Amino acid sequence: MFINEKIFRKYDIRGIVGTDLTRELTVALGRAFAIYLKEIKPNAKAVSIGRDVRESSPMFAEGLAEGITGEGITVYNLGACPTPHQYFSIHHLNLDGGIMVTGSHNSTEFNGFKISVGKGTIHGEAIQKIKEIILRALPSNSRKGTRPFEPIIKDILSPYKNFMLEKFAYLNDKKYSRLKIVIDAGNGVGGLAAPQILENIGCEVIPLYCEPDGRFPNHHPDPTVIENIADLIKTVKDTNADIGIGYDGDADRIGVVDSDGSIIWGDQLMIILSRSILKKKNGATIIGDVKCSQILFDEIKTLGGTGIMWKTGHSLIKEKMKETGAILAGEFSGHIFIADEYFGYDDAIYTTIRLIEIMKTTGLNIKELLSGIPQLFYTPEIRIDCPDDKKSDVIKNMSSAFKDFQTCDIDGIRVIFEKGWGLIRASNTQPAIIMRVEASDEESLNQYREIILRALPSNTRKGSKTL
């Protein structure tokens, strides 16, 4: 069996279907996961498998189940569901871990696996350990005399919906305004749950591409790319909606536009959530990734909280939340982690509900909820194509170009300028380098962007794309 070791990334396993990922590989991955799980949790008995709606996902979920059950661990088959539903199943069913089959926001030729041991997703050395177990070419009869048994089909959509409605049904009371909300699920799995829940908490929902279709026929399921939310912006404006919400393919990443169609980035959502949460939990710790605006960290401090800048990556942030006791965390890219009255993993549907709750209970719109925030000039994420085997070295070699500036090397290089900052880092999920720049005026923004671009190798610069 051919194994491309590059698919074992920093916080998930991801590759090209049919080339890197095959059913044979998923059976081996299932067995390796079960073996690793029993090393960490010797009494492990049951896990769950969820999947997105990519055409290859059912086959890969079946392969995983065959490998896991062949090692004597029960599998709950959740079928097609959002990634946060698979995380929810671990808590709801008190499981020992699980795997989500998803290519997330990547294009259709990709798929992948997000792996949980206990209630946390693994990364780094743990993923490499699973790779090593596979590479040992374990004999197929490691559990001689046993046969894989059938996974148990389990509905997780209904318990998830019921959980949310028990907490938020009060928002359907007539004393709160009925908000009009456009939901663009990008033909991913978010459409399986979000519209129904929001309707039941007093929203008029206008569904946009909420029919699951793993070919993603309308647009790529990544709401952080401006061209992918063009229809969302238009629909919000055309229908005079209060807010527009976009989800990525597995609904753990959120994109938001306000009633004017203006994009509200992840760090701005974090400001809205921080203002709400720190009112009742003063002094709490809140984490933002290195791509977040300095305004977020300044605002957290002003509100009496403790702000921490940390690495990008869902597993890395969840681990840091556990270490610091953080109550909220988020990435500029729209992964939001709420531990305030919730489980602390990235759930775009739950984040939507919390935003709606704030809007309903305060009577304020998104712009009003962001009042007092200084106007800055900033780029979205700029992706610069770069091979996986070269991107880390490119970043390392750039460090000398910024020796005259203060820098932060938590994740890539964040360069501190007089009137702003710029970031350059290697993507952990794509063959690309990510750049972002922020400044107090447009002239400085362009100047800082050029400083970083000039530090890149000339052949790399040509591949830049604004996300």
Structurally, the number of domains stands at 4
| Helix share, percent | 25-40%
CATH class identity of the largest domain:
Alpha Beta
> Which percent band covers the strand fraction?
15-25%
Residue-averaged pLDDT: 94
Q: What global shape is seen?
A: globular
CATH-defined architecture of the largest domain: 3-Layer(aba) Sandwich
Structural class: alpha/beta
Query: What is the CATH fold-level name of the largest domain?
Result: Alpha-D-Glucose-1,6-Bisphosphate, Chain A, domain 3
Determine the number of helices (DSSP H or I, runs of at least 4 residues): 15
Low-confidence stretches: none
The radius of gyration over CA amounts to: 22 Å
Count of DSSP strands: 23
How far apart the termini lie comes to 36 Å
CATH superfamily placement of the largest domain: Alpha-D-Glucose-1,6-Bisphosphate, subunit A, domain 3
Say what oligomer this is: single chain
Query: Biggest sheet, in brief?
Result: 7 strands, mixed
